[in-house]
Write a structure and sequence with these properties.
By secondary structure, the chain is α/β, with parallel strands linked by helices. It is 33% helix and 19% strand.
Length: 475
């Protein structure tokens, strides 16, 4: 593998019989090469990187959107490419350092290209180099960058990309610390001044239960108005359980060891919590701009660790706990703060609630619970009327009377899985890129408000000893 002559590129192309192949010089290697040890694959890429420019065979004519992927350390980067998009070049440049993160990303995209059902046809031009960011900025091989990986310092990469004229589709979170909020504001200002699109990947807005919950909360006949909550009994409550061991695109997801470094990846409030805060703002204030300086106040926050035994750490990462994480090891287990979903909104007429427990067979379901049993008949009529009005947008949704509460019935065809939400976000991003005037004006201020809440909440929680919060979700 290491004997490839200088100048030969590492290429991936679509072959009629065997799907994508990897080439070093003129020697093809079939998909079985993906089973080689990571070290061998790194050596393969190192040999390819010795040449000047990495090229793909049969590049298509110029498309209006050309993606570039920068340092894909998280599997979300590959999920953007789970589908093909009209008007988007199938050639994608990947800039990253040599290592397992890059290898895993290439393997995921390869599986999309080789799947039996509706395979993709991406052609990856890989630039494996230590100065991957500088190389990307020099080459300007595309006009839209996808960023999903290490979160510490991510906002600086976003800024550099925008300064170079790239639109940016960026996984959450953009920032981890409150001190970086001015950097976020500057990045969004740059995008606006240069008429670029900078969008964070908010997949949960596309979950059907979230969409219907939003509709019902904003229906006065069903919900009434939001109850003014307290810390002990909030008007809105959300709870998310984030699984560390997952199957992604049909294969076990091996996480890098740095994923468990909360200073690098983030923790519950400033990472996963980004989705929850986004949903609250998006649901309660549809199409409204929030000013975090005037409209938001963070009153209290708490955090607590998740203990990961060494054997489970090995299962998730394939490695031992590295020395860099040794300060977080207690009683031979890694202390880690960080997918089920539970959320309710309390209205003056009813509570609108998403549950995903054993009773729901761990599938999210939406319920409407009347505040007073005597109001149930009127509430049922209101929900039926609302469901009828939603048939164009969500055909087939209905309501079932369960006695003390109502359940929204959702056809299976509307239940799109989490991985497929990335294509929906990408399609929305592409619409904005092709017509920036369609980008809602409220996205910018509400993004600032969202990250103000997550970073201020994290800072506030760190000032007190860890304290486990009581879970309210049904088992």
């Amino acid at each position: 593998m290491g004997g490839s002559p200088p100048g030969q590129g590492w290429q991936r192309r679509t072959a009629k019989s065997k799907g994508p192949v990897m080439r070093i010089g003129s020697s093809p290697m079939t998909r079985s090469a993906m089973a080689l040890p990571c070290l061998a694959l790194v050596g393969l890429l190192a040999a390819a990187a010795a040449g000047p420019r990495l090229r793909a065979e049969g590049s298509p004519p110029m498309a209006d959107v050309r993606f570039v992927t920068l340092d894909p350390g998280h599997f979300h980067a590959a999920l953007v490419q789970k589908e093909m998009y009209p008007g988007v070049s199938k050639v994608v440049h990947v800039y990253a350092p040599l290592g397992p993160d890059l290898i895993d990303h290439l393997a995921r995209v390869s599986r999309f290209n080789q799947r039996a059902d509706n395979p993709t046809s991406w052609e990856l031009q890989v630039h494996a180099t230590p100065d991957f960011l500088s190389q990307m900025l020099r080459d300007r091989a595309g006009n839209a960058v996808v960023l999903s990986g290490r979160n510490r310092g991510k906002i600086d990469r976003v800024q550099s990309s925008l300064d170079a004229g790239f639109n940016a589709l960026v996984d959450k979170p953009w920032i981890l610390e409150a001190a970086d909020l001015p950097k976020l504001e500057r990045a969004l200002d740059t995008a606006e001044a240069r008429k670029l699109v900078a969008l964070d990947i908010m997949t949960e807005r596309h979950e059907i239960t979230s969409e219907l919950q939003r509709e019902l909360v904003n229906d006065p006949a069903t919900f009434g108005t939001l109850v003014r909550g307290t810390e002990a009994d909030p008007g809105v409550y959300m709870e998310s359980v984030h699984n560390l061991m997952k199957v992604v695109a049909g294969a076990p997801n091996i996480r890098p060891t740095w994923f468990f470094d909360t200073e690098e990846q983030g923790e519950g409030l400033n990472d996963i919590g980004t989705h929850l805060v986004d949903l609250v703002q998006w649901t309660l204030f549809p199409d409204q701009a929030l000013d975090y300086r005037k409209d938001v106040r963070v009153q209290s926050a708490q955090r607590w660790p998740t203990m990961i035994p060494r054997d489970q750490f090995r299962r998730v990462t394939g490695q031992e706990i590295p020395a860099a994480l040794s300060p977080h090891v207690k009683d031979d287990a890694l202390e880690y703060a960080g997918d089920s979903h539970f959320a309710y909104y309390r209205g003056t007429r009813a509570r609108v609630e998403v549950r995903q427990g054993a009773a729901e067979k761990h599938r999210p379901e939406l319920y409407v619970v009347p505040n007073a049993p005597a109001d149930k008949a009127a509430l049922l009529a209101a929900v039926q009327k609302k469901m009828a009005a939603l048939q164009t947008a969500h055909p087939g949704v209905g309501v079932e009377d369960l006695g003390p509460e109502l359940r929204i019935t959702i056809p299976d065809r509307l239940r799109i899985g989490h991985e497929d939400h990335f294509a929906q976000v990408t399609q929305r991003f592409l619409r904005y890129v092709r017509g920036r005037s369609t980008l809602p004006a409220w996205e910018r201020p509400n993004m600032l408000a969202k990250y103000y809440v997550t970073t201020e909440g994290t800072a506030l929680a760190r000032r007190a000893p860890p304290r486990v919060a009581e879970r309210r979700a049904p088992k």
